[in-house]
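Re: that chain you flagged

S.,

Sorry for the slow reply, it's been a week of failed gels. I finally had a moment to sit down with the sequence you sent. For the record, here it is as I used it:
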Amino acid sequence: MKLKWGLSFLFFIIGLSFLTYSCYQNRVYDWDLPGYLGSIYSWDFPDNPQKVHELTYSSMKSEAPVKSYNDIVGLNLPNKVFEKNSSAFSEQIPYYKIKVGFNAAVYVFYKCGFSAPTSVLLVNIIAYFVSGILLFFFLKYIFRDNYFIAPILSLFVMGIPAMRGMAENPTPDMFLLVFMMLFLISVLQKRSVLLQFVLLLSCVLIRPDYILFALTFLFVRFIYEYLKKSKKINYYLVVQGFLLVTIYIFILKMYHYPGWKDVFYDSFISRRVVISAEKADFTFKQYWDILIFKLINFKRITLISSVLVFLIFYFSKGLWMRTLAVLFFVNIYIKFIFFPDGGTLRFFLGFVILLFMVLLYVLSKKYDGFKLRKIA
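Prediction finished late last night. Pasting the structure tokens below so you have them in one place:
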């Protein structure tokens, strides 16, 4: 059995290495990249925004293909202004600075000698490889006697275009997925609540908007334990929630984050050239119209996540598994309500992957790991 698992892992590593190399070869230099470059340069030059601006665009221009660079700076009027005006660019940086965990990982690579643009992309490439390894060992853990499922299913998931897209683009989502997967595994394996808290905190540090995911999980767990177990208040969960909210607020204040209204306005109504020169005012009707319109592009995520939840409910009668399924499903729509970019799968794919992992876990319990048996 050890030999078979060894060969299984070797096959998987070869396939994952090929996919990872392909992601690196197809890495994308897009309009998010300047924001993350400006964030890490500002750590070295906190009082010199002109230097930060100059380094951001000069480093990107020296490394990115000419067409990619021209697409970034020529995407729209604001992007053209950001390239020329350090003040306008500096006002955009808080949108990216708050993703402290991701920027810290990028900064480590940068200080190790890699160029800043390469450092941003390397974090995601490595995170892609690590998430593949995590998925393989998760499947190996739940399907202990079936060495076919782990490599084939892992490579299938990692080969999904949306998964590869997260690795190829300079955003925190691939890096975040690693910690989301670790968190779910810790929950399914009933690891310590301290470890789960650390993983939730890591998610919030990488993307502060995941505070909603962290708080909803703590709330659901609090209610579940109160009703199904001790009938006592778990103050430990309350303290965790308080600490997460405190850290979240501290990050927003420290980096002068404009706020949700500004993000929504710049993303879906009109990208402002100079944030301080125009208020992010819009009506509820404008918000509602955008939300409904964006639902049209959300049908794929809705269909896939709904099917996964249905299958989890069908194959498992366990209340906790069903609760986790509903939790992840609801968080997809919480995310959508605050940032209704239904056509951008990377914002929601992490929760879909977690639903898929819960389904696999449920199936492994119901069918005893799909054990391979010799034919008599």
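What I noticed first: The first helix runs from residue 2 to 25.

Talk soon,
D.
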